[in-house]
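Final report, closing paragraph on structural work. Over the funding period we assembled a curated collection of sequence-structure pairs, and we close with a single example.
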Amino acid sequence: MPIAVTANQDLSRYEIRVDGEVAGFTRFVPDGDSLVFPHTEIDAKFAGQGLAKTLIRAVLDDVRAQGRKVVALCPFVKSFIEKNPGYQDLLA
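Its predicted structure, as stored:
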């Protein structure tokens, strides 16, 4: 099952797709040189497959590549960063 994470600028969110179907997303709000992440959601149909972790890891890697910072309002994003010290430098 092919998995892809892409930025959907029109909807201000990053999406994770499984076999072309949107399985979940994390919303973002640009704020200067940071992106604020208020909410992450995985469709119940795809729950328990580790897709939220895959999504957030890809998003944080993209934020780093852009040279931006993260404001983690979403509890899942915040928890992911706390549990993965390699991403803590991204916190604004």
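The radius of gyration is 12 Å. Residues 64 and 83 are 17 Å apart (CA to CA). We thank the funder for supporting this effort.
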